[in-house]
Amino acid sequence: MKQEQKVAENRHARMSCTAVGLAGLCCLLLMSGCSKAPDRGLDDTSPPALRCTSPFDGEQSVQAESCVMAVFDEPIDTTAMCSCAMSVQADGVGIGGDIAVNTDTLLFTPHHSLAYSTCYRVILADGISDLWGNSIEQPDTFSFTTEPAPQGCDRHSLTVINPNGG
What we know:
The protein has about 170 residues and is of the alpha+beta class. It has a single domain (about 5-35, about 45-145), classed as Sandwich (Immunoglobulin-like). The chain has two helices and nine strands; from the N terminus they run ααβββββββββ. It has helices spanning about 5-15, 20-30; strands at about 50-55, 60, 70, 85-90, 95, 95-100, 105-110, 120-125, 140-145. Strands 2-9-8-4-5 form a five-stranded mixed beta sheet, with no helix packed on it. A hairpin with a 2-residue loop joins strand 4 and strand 5. It is elongated.
């Protein structure tokens, strides 16, 4: 799949985190390019594998109001999940946010908008396990870069013009 097509599909799939519930986001993401999860049966001995992410690895110009999502190829054990399961970092420093888990999906919602023109690294911790106790053995990572600041918006300067000329 061409990079431009993948970017267009992921942009279409990504919506405001506050406007759409986790189930809606999962459905949109799954329809935008993630393949169907394999049926592993009762004798599963494989750890969960990362199936797709939003934003995708290497994506550029991601909206600053975005959430971060990781979808695995099978249900993950929510009872063994800790807040360290997924972290989002800029320049090696973690950003604050909430993690929601729903079946096979981790959703990170930042407490504040992401910074413009910033590279973020997402780390999925080792120890994430499936319902059969199979844990991923090494952390999985992906990165993305946020959009540049809108033209004409300079948060650091303010010019006051007095209409009376003074």
